[in-house]
Specification:
This protein is α/β, with parallel strands linked by helices. It folds into two domains: about 190 residues, NAD(P)-binding Rossmann-like Domain (Rossmann fold, 3-Layer(aba) Sandwich), CATH 3.40.50.720; about 190 residues, NAD(P)-binding Rossmann-like Domain (Rossmann fold), CATH 3.40.50.720. It has eleven helices and 14 strands. Strands 3-2-1-4-5-6-7-8 form an eight-stranded mixed beta sheet, sandwiched between helices. α7 crosses α9. It is globular. The model has no long low-confidence stretch (mean pLDDT about 95). Keywords: NAD, Oxidoreductase. InterPro entries: 6-PGluconate_DH-like_C_sf, NAD(P)-bd_dom_sf, UDP-Glc/GDP-Man, UDP-Glc/GDP-Man_DH_C, UDP-Glc/GDP-Man_DH_C_sf, UDP-Glc/GDP-Man_DH_dimer, UDP-Glc/GDP-Man_DH_N, UDP_ManNAc/GlcNAc_DH.
Length: about 400
């Protein structure tokens, strides 16, 4: 008989794991967070939130209700459920890199409570749970007396409408018992939980979600390039097409998608497709287009300024999207480096990112030759830029 879930350990207390920990704590679970980053760990141990989507007061309340955080993986001992919320990036060849996730699973195994439910929320390619994670966990634990389930994260930082409690959750286990336990665990704090027939179904579904976005955004980015050549307002084109009440969904141009999901997850699906001999060329091409977008805006800067040597350029929005401090896969960062390589004197401004690579955010002013809007908070006072030319990479939307 599986043990009831009372104590929960969540490995990774970042954009995915921390909201999960707070929601689980609020639902009455005794939660232990495991975090290896010393800055994030120190903040949490002082009841301070290291991310924008969780306020410090919520952490303090959770701590009063038994939430604790540690860097020691051995602190998972005795927990009835163990959840992994760790990054799964791409390597330098755009191949899946599971080093962090598999390393943590291997370290956790010896401390796993018999009968525990283990859930992975990290993004992985189809077959990973069955072919890699299950055998690794059984080997490191020295037994197979555990239940394993997959429930891919669906976190959209700084989204005012959708959060961990109202975004539908997918679950699937290795057997009916694991599926039911995972489903019941999440139902205590998620309003809508959907159980599916196999882990492989939702491993693939997670990748489909973000591949769909990548392909469509990359298409719109190519359309934006065409519209620039034609002298047509791409945002007006999209607005016109969106009046059709069926068969069209608007996507918007950018300097390239960023963050921990959209540039990464589709390549997990593309990699698996190549492994089995059925390449998904649309994903691979969309990835190429996305990676090339900073170069397009570098060329646009040259069109506007000519030789970029010593030209003063301000990039507005360093993070991958407005309202967050996350610069992972940021198109702004890539564009900044390209502009500097071309000889420009580049500064950056971001309302939330305070420091980056030892540099600080630069105040808005009219002392530049060009301003490049990569993303912008709606509260930004762009009037401070005066008459400085503005290169808008995101169509002017807020």
């Amino acid at each position: 008989m599986p043990t009831a879930i009372e104590r929960v350990a969540i490995v990774g207390q970042g954009y995915v794991g921390l909201p999960l920990a707070m929601a689980a704590s609020g639902a009455g679970y005794a939660v232990t967070g495991i975090e290896s980053d010393p800055v994030r760990l120190g903040a949490l141990q002082s009841d301070q939130s290291p991310i924008e989507d969780v306020v410090s007061e919520v952490i303090a309340k959770a701590a009063a209700n038994g939430y604790s955080v540690s860097s020691a993986i051995s602190d998972i001992a005795g927990c009835d459920a163990l959840i992994f919320c760790l990054p799964t990036p791409l390597d330098s060849n755009s191949k899946p890199d599971l080093t962090i996730l598999l390393g943590a699973i291997s370290q956790a195994g010896p401390h796993l409570k018999p009968g525990a439910l283990v859930i992975v929320e990290s993004t992985i390619q189809p077959g990973t749970m069955r072919d890699e994670i299950y055998p690794l966990l059984a080997k490191s634990a020295g037994h197979d007396n555990f239940e394993l389930a997959y429930s891919p994260e669906r976190i959209d930082p700084n989204n005012p409408k959708w959060n961990i409690t109202n975004t539908p959750k997918l679950v699937a286990g290795f057997n009916e018992s694991a599926t039911l336990r995972a489903e019941n665990f999440y139902k205590k704090f998620v309003s809508e939980v959907h159980a599916y027939s196999s882990i492989e179904v939702i491993e693939t579904a997670k990748l489909l979600e973000n591949a769909f976005r990548l392909v469509n955004i990359s298409f719109i980015n190519e359309l934006a390039i065409l519209c620039a050549k034609l002298g047509v307002d791409v945002m007006e084109v999209i607005s016109a097409a969106a009046t059709k009440p069926y068969g069209f969904m608007p996507f918007y141009p950018s300097a390239g998608v960023g963050g921990h999901c959209i540039p990464i997850d589709p390549m997990y699906l593309a990699n698996k497709a190549r492994e089995v001999g059925t390449p998904i060329r649309s994903i691979e091409l969309a990835h190429e287009i996305n990676e090339a977008m900073p170069n397009f805006y570098l060329a646009r800067a040259v069109e506007l300024l000519g030789n970029l040597s010593k030209k003063r350029i301000l990039i507005v929005g360093l993070a991958y999207k407005s309202g967050v401090a996350d610069v992972r896969e940021s198109a702004a960062e890539k564009l900044l480096l390209l502009l500097r390589k071309a000889g420009a004197a580049v500064s950056w401004h971001d309302e939330i990112v305070g420091t980056w690579n030892g540099e600080s955010s630069t105040p808005l002013s009219s002392e530049f030759d060009l301003v490049v809007l990569v993303n912008a908070d709606a509260k930004l006072d762009l009037a401070k830029l005066g008459s400085v030319p503005v290169l808008n990479t995101f169509g002017g939307r807020k």
